[in-house]
Design brief:
The chain has 95 residues and is mainly α. Helix content is 75%, strand content 0%.
Length: 95
C-alpha cells in the first residue's frame, strides 16, 4: 500500500489520470479529422463520426478547433495576456 504525505499528491494524481483518460479519445478523433481533411474523398476511411454529419460540417468544426488551439498558443506565448486571460474568461461567464 502506498502512503501519501498529504492529499495534494493523491488529488493531483487523480486529476491527471482522469484528464488523460478523458482527453485521449478526443485527441485521437481530432487527429483523424485533420488527416481526413488532407485526404481525397475517394480514400477517406469509414469513421463512425463521418457517417451522420456532412463532410463540410466536419471540416468546418475541425478548422474552428484548429483556430482556437492557435489562439490559445498565441495567448500562452504573450506575457501579460496569458496572466489576464483566465480572469477575462471568468468575468465573461458571470455576466
Amino acid at each position: 500500500m502506498v502512503t501519501y504525505r498529504n492529499n495534494r499528491e493523491l488529488n493531483a494524481g487523480t486529476v491527471a489520470y482522469l484528464s488523460t483518460n478523458s482527453l485521449l479519445p478526443m485527441l485521437v478523433q481530432f487527429v483523424q479529422r485533420v488527416l481526413v481533411m488532407l485526404m481525397p474523398p475517394k480514400y477517406q476511411p469509414d469513421y463512425m463520426f463521418l457517417r451522420n454529419v456532412p463532410m463540410r460540417r466536419v471540416h468546418l468544426f475541425t478548422v474552428i478547433q484548429l483556430g482556437c488551439i492557435m489562439v490559445l498558443c498565441i495567448i500562452k506565448e504573450l506575457g501579460i495576456v496569458s496572466i489576464v486571460f483566465p480572469v477575462m474568461v471568468s468575468t465573461c461567464q458571470d455576466s
